[in-house]
């Protein structure tokens, strides 16, 4: 049995170290840490990356950002951005070349290390030999992994070249686009200059023409003034005064003749009506205007008594083309209301099957000053009239105390002091018209049905107040989409 001395072991270990480390230069002072997985695969432990993303990732992020901001960047900014990315791609290409050189050096180092381990495996035996074989397998695995890394490096190099060519082409296109936009801008500037020049010339021409026209107008005005002075000198002041006196006298004569003509026409109408009434049984008494009342009167002994006759009043158009019944007007007295202005009134008398008609000589005339009075009242939100209750629900009212009739924009109220007799909003059940029937002071009377089952006949202080109240109430009711009219039947 051979005995190995300690000196022999020391010499052999020294020879191992010298043979392994002759031409090998490691980047670090310690061997990389690896683990063997299934099927003797080498698993590299994860390393902490403290250097941030790689240059390739930065270029990709910049490319995506440029694509997103393409619509927002100007052409010049886009060109400068492409130039920057082109320089970054060139830098990345140079770095890829350096990495390729480092990869070649890694292959050389791994080959030398594998040769050194092979020489050691022939010299060692036992457990040391197994460690050397494990080291050799790890070196081979490192060589395979390095080969894979080289493949990835080649692919990355190809992509970098492709990206560089794309960026170069994009930079050239951007420069062309900048030059094109610059030429377009220059052309637009020249066009704008020409337009401004033409506008300036037109303004100067217009100013010259305006000055010439002003001068011509002044000359014409001077000529007109001189002609007027000449005409004034030709006419003596005394003749002008005489002509003015003559015009005033002529106007006065025309006025007198027109007044006389109106009187003659009225007298002729009265005589004509008197002649017609000789053959009539009934006539109308009273003024045919708003604010008065009309009364049927027999003008012959042969005329039947009015209480024994059936009477109905009608409205006729001024041309007589249509006829409208006046509901509730079935007595011998009728006081015209605002609806009757401009209409012809007709009373129809029926007795023993015989029908007689009496018609006004013309349309009902409006009351003087009533329109302006109503316009003044419309400026108020609420108008009050002093009234006396003549009838209530068709029965005579015994008390003749003064009440207040409020006509508002939304409702009508009848009160006495703080006591409210009736207060109703405008509605379809409300009725309002002039007083009809045998009523004292019918021209001042007003019929108001506040609601079904409650009606009043009110007497105002004057005919003007009664007609104004009717007009105001109908105007406010119309604004509320309600039409105020007379009753279907009034006793």
From TrEMBL:
Keywords from the named record: Coiled coil
GO terms, molecular function: actin binding
Stomatal closure-related actin-binding protein actin-binding domain: residues covered: 55-97
BP GO terms, sorted: actin filament organization; regulation of stomatal movement
Coiled-coil positions: 160-231
Pfam families xref list: SCAB-ABD (PF16711), SCAB-Ig (PF16709), SCAB-PH (PF17684), SCAB_CC (PF16712)
Location of the Stomatal closure-related actin-binding protein PH domain: 382-489
Start and end residues of each Stomatal closure-related actin-binding protein coiled-coil domain: 101-268
InterPro entries documented for this protein: SCAB, SCAB-ABD, SCAB-Ig, SCAB-PH, SCAB_CC
Boundaries of every Stomatal closure-related actin-binding protein Ig domain copy: 282-379
Residues spanning the membrane: none
Gene3D superfamilies assigned to the protein according to its UniProt record, in alphabetical order: 2.30.29.140, 2.60.40.2700, ATP synthase delta/epsilon subunit, C-terminal domain
Domain of life of the native organism: Eukaryota
Name of the featured protein: Stomatal closure-related actin-binding protein
Native source organism of the sequence: Quercus rubra (Northern red oak)
Source lineage: Eukaryota, Viridiplantae, Streptophyta, Embryophyta, Tracheophyta
